[in-house]
Amino acid sequence: MQPADLVTCERFPCADVAHDGFAVPGVDVDPSSVRIVLISECAAPDAADDYYAPDDPLFARTTVAAFRDAGEQVSSIADILDLGVYLTTAIKCAKTAYAIAPATVKECSFLLDRELAHFPSVRAYLLMGDVAIAAINAIAVRAGQKRVVPAGPTYKLRGGDFTFRGARVFPSYLQAGPSFFIEKRKREMIAEDIAAALRV
Fold it and tell me: I need a surface site. Which of 57, 71, 137, 198 has the fewest CB within 10 A?
């Protein structure tokens, strides 16, 4: 299965993202093998930096480093997929400013919901940053449920007992992008959260 064949945006209604940067993973994945879905913020500003881009994309580089910090001997996104971890973004277009509007998160959560529906064996979700948390909350509220992750700073929410569709939820920090190499304490917490998800 290639998620890019199953999830498309027909209207592109969001005003604060770059529609020409629209990206759903075009990787071949066996849905039944996916045990963890890692959701980060948005598509890379440069498509060459997305998770599954060829050569040495930035998102792959920082994510491989995060999994190595968590104790996994991986050297590529293919190795992470072999662990049963699928990587995607909450927002399928690249952002054009620092923040993403709540309306955009809500709109794109429909696409994320459609994407996640194809992975029936998920045991854990890694929500990497506030946008991923907000997107999962939007999906849950739309289904008539309460928010999956309550409001509050991530450092206070980490390690909480949260579930979404029967799977554990781990709120964490964004691991995709250049800031990963700068903030040492957040990098340590990301590694702890990944390791905890892998133990589920």
Answer: 71
Q: Tell me the domain boundaries of the chain.
A: 3-199
Q: Can you tell me the distance from the alpha carbon of 79 to that of 191, in angstroms, rounded to the nearest whole number?
A: 16
Tokens encoding 23? 């990206």
**Measured in whole angstroms, how far is the alpha carbon of residue 73 from the centre of its chain?**
21
What is the second-level CATH architecture of the domain 3-199? 3-Layer(aba) Sandwich (3.40)
DSSP 6-57: H---SS---SSEEGGG---------GGG--EEEEEEEE-SSGGGSTT-SS--
* Phi, psi for residue 164 in degrees, rounded to 5: -140, 120
For residue range 35-50, what is the model confidence (pLDDT) as tens digits? Answer: 999 999 999 999 999 9
- Whole-number Å distance between alpha carbons of 8 and 20: 13
> Residue 71 and residue 164: Cα distance in Å, rounded?
26
